[in-house]
Design goal:
Low-confidence stretches: 1-5
Shape: globular
Largest sheet: 6 strands, parallel
Radius of gyration: 18 Å
Number of domains: 2
Structural class: alpha/beta
Number of helices: 12
Helix content: 40-55%
Strand order of the largest sheet: 8-7-6-9-10-11
CATH superfamily of the largest domain: Leucine Dehydrogenase, chain A, domain 1
Mean pLDDT: 95
Strand content: 15-25%
């Protein structure tokens, strides 16, 4: 439980990532703090803008008394080597997005994983993911892939332009789900056409990386799609899915649920989700 002194102290947080000028993470955490009576500061920490690398930015956070940080593209996998990971499943994922500086050794957590599960259930109730084509095997793709396993996925076809990443994810998934049907794809259109669910976990579609990795001509028969990108909320991929009348899960939902769970780790406090949603919509 957060003691009375900590309740009055400023909660100093930040986000390390590239291309995060449009991120709403600072708004979410500041507003979440207001709803529970905490003052929160939340800084955008972009290595190239600071003129230093990721390791130096991480050290900067330690030296400047940050209570915790979030980590986003492209540093989630790199951050694992900097922290103790208490959850064996998160350790198997090989990616963290939330770090606490709450002891001698920083601890790493993955609320992308748990946030995706919460977002999927909130949108689709108890629907099975079915067979899924996952495009993008980086940090976000890893968290979502493990989330799909927890949700009862039948099959995952992994596609990444870096085959090394795709095979590494396949190997790690087999450690926790040895009987799962896993394949590596090289033809996005063919893999998408054969899937019940489609997931984009690449940065393609976000501000600065416009476009879509999913051919619109391959859409139509799927039961659901998810885009991890949330800036903008309406990506080209999601617009194409809407035109094909496919139920959609936006990256904003992952952003929201992972943020709520990260804030709980940072502060020890639960927020009223409906109130936080309302306040964010006004901002």
């Amino acid at each position: 439980m957060v003691d009375q002194i900590n309740k009055k102290s400023v909660l100093k947080l930040g986000l390390i990532g590239d291309n995060i000028a449009a991120s709403r993470a600072p708004d979410l955490h500041r507003i979440a703090g207001e709803t529970v009576g905490r003052t929160v500061t939340y800084d955008r920490l972009v290595p190239k803008d600071m003129g230093i690398g990721f390791d130096a930015v991480f050290s900067y956070c330690v030296e400047h008394d940050y209570h915790g940080i979030n980590v986003t593209y492209p540093y989630k996998e790199r951050a694992v080597s900097k922290v103790i990971v208490p959850d064996p499943l998160v350790k198997a994922m090989g990616a963290v997005n939330t770090i606490l500086f709450d002891g001698e050794n920083p601890s790493g957590h993955n609320t992308d994983y748990s946030g995706f599960i919460a977002a999927f259930r909130n949108r689709f109730d108890d629907m099975s993911p079915g067979s899924v084509t996952l495009v993008g095997a980086g940090g976000a793709g890893r968290a979502v892939a493990f989330g799909l396993v927890a949700l009862g996925v039948n099959r995952i076809c992994i596609i990444d332009k870096e085959l090394k990443k795709a095979h590494a994810l396949e190997r790690d998934l087999r450690q926790v789900a040895p009987d799962l049907d896993l394949t590596i794809g090289d033809d996005v259109a063919r893999a998408v056409s054969a899937a019940e669910g489609i997931v984009n976990c690449t940065p393609i579609g976000m501000v600065g990386y416009e476009g879509t990795p999913i051919p619109a001509t391959a859409l139509g028969s799927q039961k659901w799609v998810f885009d991890a990108v949330y800036t903008p909320i309406e990506t080209q991929f999601l617009r194409d899915a809407a035109a094909a009348e496919i139920p959609r899960l936006s990256g904003y939902e992952l952003f929201f649920f992972q943020g709520v769970q990260a804030f709980k780790l940072f502060s020890g406090a639960d927020v009223v989700q409906e109130e936080l949603r309302l306040q964010l919509s006004r901002g």
